[in-house]
Amino acid sequence: MKKGSHFQRVLRAVNRYFIFFLLVAFVITCCMTLFLTVLAETLGIDFTEINLNAAAKLTFANVVLLSLLLTVLDAIRRKLTVERPVRRISEAAEQIMQGDFSVRVEPGIRFGTDETFHEIIASFNKMAKELAGVETLRTDFIANVSHEMKTPLAVMQNYGTLLSAPDLSEESRMEYAKGVTDAARRMSDMMTNILKLNRLENQTIYPHAETYDLGEQLCECLLRYESVWEAKNIEIETELAEDVTVRADGELLSLVWNNLLSNAFKFTPEGGRVSVRLNATAHHATVEIRDTGCGMSPEVGAHIFEKFYQGDTSHATQGNGLGLALVKRVMDVVSGEISVTSTAGEGSAFTVRLRRSSDGR
Which listed residue, 109, 281, 289, 337, has the most CB atoms within 10 A of its CB? Predict the structure, then answer.
């Protein structure tokens, strides 16, 4: 393999030499012919055959030497300005293929180098940086999924062991069975959210825009949690503007409202309050979901839209840290905005801003 590669390099060098030889021979022949013709006509000199043969031999020798010199200079130029950056890019690509995404290609000298190589190197380094980020996210994602699955699996295993006891009372059996069911439901919810998030991030879910009344959708989503707020004696406040229509994917937005409302009821203690407000301008609709729960610090608030992040670990068994990441991705897909304001111990308020339907109703 190396012998064949060496032969090809020699062949390319010989080929370049003959190209330079023909070029130099043509240029020098034209120049010498013009020079001798003008000289003979101006001075009235007649060149003999001996003179012409000597001049031809000398010219041929010059052509050979100049062609060799140009070939050597071109080889040095190519080695410094073409082969060296190509080799660095190839070596870096090999490292990336082996899984090393920390590799970067140094730009090298700019003098005499085609600017295209610097553009390629800059794009290559940007690609390597993006791949490194994707690999980090993938590794963290796998680690987080594995960690999150361990808890419900351990719960199911423990309750399953307890259920196998022969002298188990009916009350304990129902309690342990409920524990298994809850753990299984949590795993199912996590897998569902992972699949939804993956489809959104890979853009295999395309928004199906339709015009509908946003206030009606919010009421429908809120009523799904009626049993929750009654069980915790939570006060509900609603202030919904009428006839506020939006043009968006209703199914995707229902994921947003369900996740935000679920969090609001989850973190609001008994006797607390959850409020839902809908306001509208000519071009935008704004939804605010506020609770009087535990709230969060600015440090926690800066990470709540990240996958598997849970600021309040005391409620970890009630979620998997994917809900708000799913909400954020949905808002990106439907070209909406979401923000949060929160104070530890006083509650949180999530604000969603959407573009209204084109008719402005």
Answer: 289
